[in-house]
Design goal:
GO terms for molecular function: triacylglycerol lipase activity. Its EC number is 3.1.1.3. One of its GO terms (cellular component) is membrane. InterPro entries: AB_hydrolase_1 (IPR000073), AB_hydrolase_fold (IPR029058), AB_hydrolase_sf (IPR050266), Epox_hydrolase-like (IPR000639). The structure is a single chain. The protein is α/β, with parallel strands linked by helices. The chain has one domain: Alpha/Beta hydrolase fold, catalytic domain (Rossmann fold, 3-Layer(aba) Sandwich). Helices cover 40% and strands 15% of the residues. It has an eight-stranded mixed beta sheet, with helices on both faces. Helix 5 packs across helix 6. The two termini are 28 Å apart.
Length: 323
């Protein structure tokens, strides 16, 4: 099953670690040496999240958490080159009702790994499971994933169906027969999206969003610096993606996806230029227990930033149906 599901990695996007809920203020706009970590920590606090640390094997996990373990647990998984902070805006609406866990995946955000770490989807999924076990929140968990995080969520659910209560997929990675974007047809093009130099962030932001939310230029500058610093690991993951694109097919993806029968909800932006919206219906046809996809009009690849209120609202409605 792991080998089959490795193909889920093929159509993930390069995502934006920065979030945009911080309200514009003169203090931010006038800052010449803004501390982006302090800004993000304030946003996490606004969302009801605390930063936690957990060492599991050779990984030093950093994650956000809210609520107590007596509430139903949700694990939110970000995408390639993203971070836990991608989910802050959605988490704001979930934390009053759920025990929310949002990890920085290995080689992302603040989570630390060895230099020779295996960054494949199967290994990331296995390490996520070990993390959940060490934190004692692996039982009866709701799993949600965005883009590459959707690939990990799918594989996690396929491997641990008895302990997964539901699955949310937001513009999820996969290998689709209905692929009609350049990045699905030729994964080599993803090499052009790695943020390696000044100016790359703006190109990526315009590609990933249909209605880009406002971000003060100082925050964008600092975010670009962080992504440039992480570009080596991002490039390693893209290299694996390209290599696997030569091995796996939509048929192997379909076989693996059809094994999943937990309640599933699919959300997609109809203007997604990375993973086209037709993939949502294809996923619906493969999953045994998926509701009709919720399609967001005028939204690109980043619904969790572009339409966070609608994503939260629809997800809460779906969660309330679960026993």
């Amino acid at each position: 099953m792991k080998r089959i599901f490795a193909n889920l990695y093929l159509s993930c996007s390069l995502l934006l670690p920065i979030t945009t809920t911080i309200i514009y203020s003169p203090a931010i706009s006038a800052a010449s040496g803004i501390d982006i970590q302090n800004v993000l920590q304030q946003e996490r606090a606004w969302a009801g999240l605390q930063t936690k640390h957990l060492k599991v094997g050779d990984i030093e996990w950093v994650y956000s958490e809210s609520g107590n373990s007596s509430k139903p647990t949700i694990i939110l998984i970000h995408g390639l080159a993203g971070s836990r902070d991608n989910w802050n805006r959605v988490a704001y609406n979930l934390t009053p009702y759920y025990h929310v866990i949002i990890p920085d995946l290995p080689a992302h955000g603040d989570t630390k790994i060895p230099n020779d770490f295996d960054l494949s989807i199967p290994n990331l999924t296995e390490k996520l499971r070990r993390f959940a076990e060490a934190g004692h929140f692996e039982k009866n968990v709701h799993i949600a994933g965005h883009s590459m995080g959707g690939a990990i969520a799918l594989l996690y659910t396929a491997q641990y169906p008895l302990e997964t209560k539901s699955l949310l997929l937001v513009d999820s990675a996969g290998v689709f027969k209905t692929a009609n974007t350049p990045y699905l047809k030729d994964p080599n093009l993803l090499n052009n999206l790695v943020v390696k130099k000044t100016g790359d962030f703006d190109k990526l932001f315009k590609l990933a969003t249909a209605s880009p939310p406002f971000i003060p230029v100082e925050l964008k500058t600092e975010q670009e610096k962080l992504m440039i610093a992480q570009s080596k690991n991002t490039q390693k993951m893209v290299d694996q993606l390209v290599a696997m694109s030569k091995i796996y097919t939509p048929d192997t993806f379909a076989i693996a996806t059809k094994s999943i029968d937990v309640p599933t909800y699919i959300i997609w932006g109809d203007q997604d230029k990375i993973i086209n919206v037709e993939a949502a219906q294809e996923l619906k046809s493969l999953l045994k227990n998926a509701e009709t996809p919720y399609i967001l009009k005028g939204v690109g690849h980043m619904p969790i930033l572009e339409a966070d209120q609608l994503v939260s609202q629809q997800y809460l409605i779906f969660l309330n149906k679960q026993p």
